[in-house]
Amino acid sequence: MRTPDPMLDLDIDRHKGKTISDQIATHIEHAIRSGVLIPGDRLPSWIDLASQLGVARGTVRSAYEKLIDRNMLVTAGSAGTRVAGTRQAELVEGQEPEQLLPPDAGYRTEEPLLFQLGVPASDAFPATLWSRLYKSAVQRTSTRVTYADPRGVPELREAIASHVAIARGVSCCADQIIITSGYRTALTIALQAIGVRGSQAWVEDPGYPVTRLALETMGIQPVAVPVDNHGLDVEKGRDLAPHAALAIVTAGQQAPTGVTLSPSRRAHLLEWAHVANSWLIEDDYLAELQLGGRSAHALAGEAGSERVIHIGTFSKTLSPAIGIGFLIAPPLLARRLIDEATWLHSTPNVASQTALATFLKEGHYLRHLRRMRELYSERRDILISSLEEAGFRDVTPAGLSVIVALPRGFDDQHIAMAAREVNFGPAPLSLWYSASGRGKAGLLLSVTNVSENRLGESCQRLKRCINIGTCPVPPTLFATSTS
User: Fold this and answer.
1) Which of 56, 70, 219, 233 is deepest in the core (most CB within 10 A)?
2) What is the percent of the chain where pLDDT is above 70?
3) Starting at the edge strand that comes first in sequence, how are the strands of the sheet with 231-232 ordered?
């Protein structure tokens, strides 16, 4: 892929009526419409372009955001900011281009796409039960006229404290729990409370792209630490950044590989945090839906976990529409975390919190998790069998997903875009790696919303998407010839 001139022949006129941000945005838009920049072209980072133009970083960032809002540019994780993926012939005045894949493949659709990550089984959500609990909660809370507790309603915090003690091995009290709207809000609260701008942070490689972006946005340098069959390589992390201020880990079920952090690695990680006076942020990513046996206890439940901030969410186990997550504050940091949540963040809807508290206290959540483990195990086996029957050679289980490996030279992002055209939602594996992670092309296929009905046909259509997204297709990809 060609790289455009970072300057884009842009001359800033500080005496124009238009703001500098508008001038930059207008120039980039003209370059896109005229074909100087084509779909997929990478723009310089807003920091680099600001330095070269001699303007404030926020000015360039504002220009990029204006074009992102208009779907002319898109952020793509470690792949940078790129021109959105519409054919140039379709770019006419007044017509907005189609958006490329976001870094976490979080498509905004009313119904989940086949293979889409991060979305629970839509047909298994206990809608009738939830509607009854929510209606009751609305009736009970509608007459409240005081401000809600900024940490979240007490009954939900108490229910979560009881749940994590049983299911995750974490001993805490309700006063340590802060209710959030999800992982991103909890991560923001934690990073702001720690106050480590300008420092380094270990991140898993491969790992959740949003985590890297959040760190960079807050002025923290992510250091990519390799993940192997035992989880995060702690010794490698020590070599790369021994004095990092924090590490962010998915210890229970690593994203995206699905591996569990081994006992020895857990011990070494906790020891490093204690000696380095650093913090550990545990993203408890789907650990409660471990399909390969009993879920390992949370890192926050281990001995010596005084420096662990635990983040959980109900979006991927119940529904993103509920919009509730939580953070467990270690005593050493509790006051700062609570202050951060109190003054700078808001809690989710009180009725939703109250309904979820009842859902937990009455045992519905544990029953739901048990049913989901059984259902997802069945769907994973069906998907793997269907992919193999369709001729895919290299298919690996990975938590609630399977990874379809692609040979070197395949562009998994373009393949995922081609799949999106037929309402498939695979995520490109390459976006989960740091900029140095080369030769890691693949597709992440979620098992949550697959069914046996017409799945074989869907796998054949996925093969055709690979043909469209990659030309020519090497014959070594499939066990049989592509159809």
Assistant:
1) 233
2) 87
3) 177-180, 325-328, 308-313, 279-283, 246-249, 200-205, 221-228, 231-232
Looking at every residue in the chain, the average pLDDT score rounds to 86
pLDDT at 50 over 50: yes
Indicate yes or no: pTM above 0.90: no
Confidence of residue 16 (pLDDT cuts 50, 70, 90): low
Q: ∠ at Cα 411 (407, 416), nearest 5°?
A: 110
The more confident residue out of 256 and 57 is 256
Strands ordered across the beta sheet of 401-405: 395-398, 401-405, 442-446, 427-428
pLDDT at 77: 60
Give the separation between CA 325 and CA 148, rounded to whole angstroms: 17
Beta-carbon contacts of residue 76 (< 8 Å; ≥ 6 apart): 82, 100, 101, 102, 103, 413, 431
- 349 by Cβ neighbours in 10 Å (0-12 / 13-18 / 19+) ranks as middle
Identity at 281, one-letter amino acid code: I
In the block, tokens 């006051």 appear at 335
Burial class (CB in 10 A: 0-12, 13-18, 19+), 116: buried
Determine the residue type at 11: D
Q: What is the residue type of 353? A: Q
For 313, residues 6+ apart whose C-beta sits below 8 A from its C-beta are 182, 183, 186, 284, 324, 325, 326
- Could you give the count of Cα atoms lying within 13 Å of 116 in the half-sphere of its Cβ? 24
Strand locations in 191-275 (E): 200-205, 221-228, 231-232, 246-249
For each of the domains in the chain, give its residue range(s) and CATH number, in order of start.
Answer: 20-90 (1.10.10.10), 127-362 (3.40.640.10), 371-469 (3.90.1150.10)
Cα separation, 81 vs 75, in Å, equals 4
Assign 99 a pLDDT band (cuts: 50, 70, 90): very low
Give all strands (DSSP E) within 368-426, no chain letters. 395-398, 401-405
Cα–Cα distance measured from residue 450 to residue 386, given in angstroms and rounded to the nearest whole number? 11
For residue 472, cis peptide bond before it (omega within 30 degrees of 0): yes
Angle at 386 between CA 385 and CA 387, to 5 degrees: 95
Which range, of 75-89, 272-286, 350-364, averages the lowest pLDDT?
Answer: 75-89
Q: Beta strands 395-398 and 442-446: pairing type?
A: unpaired
